[in-house]
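Data availability (excerpt). All sequences and predicted token strings are deposited with the supplementary files. A representative entry, Rho termination factor, is shown inline so that the format can be inspected without opening the archive.
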Amino acid sequence: MAEEKNTSRIKNEEQYEALVEKGYSKEKAARIANTPDSGEKGGKAPKYEERTKKELYKKATEIGIEGRSKMNKKELISALRNN
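Structure token line:
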């Protein structure tokens, strides 16, 4: 039987483990740890509250949040933060 190789797709394992320990889902922790600038401070993204509902909906679509078409802006923000 062939030996399985550990082919982790996590770019920043330390950050991933820290996020999981904080209570983030494995999916969200992996998404954050795999960003090109993972582990770096100084993010320039606007706060969710400053974005339009259309922008929030687009982000929810990218992430794959279910039920997004029926959500209002406040619900989209909550879903994005808790996914």
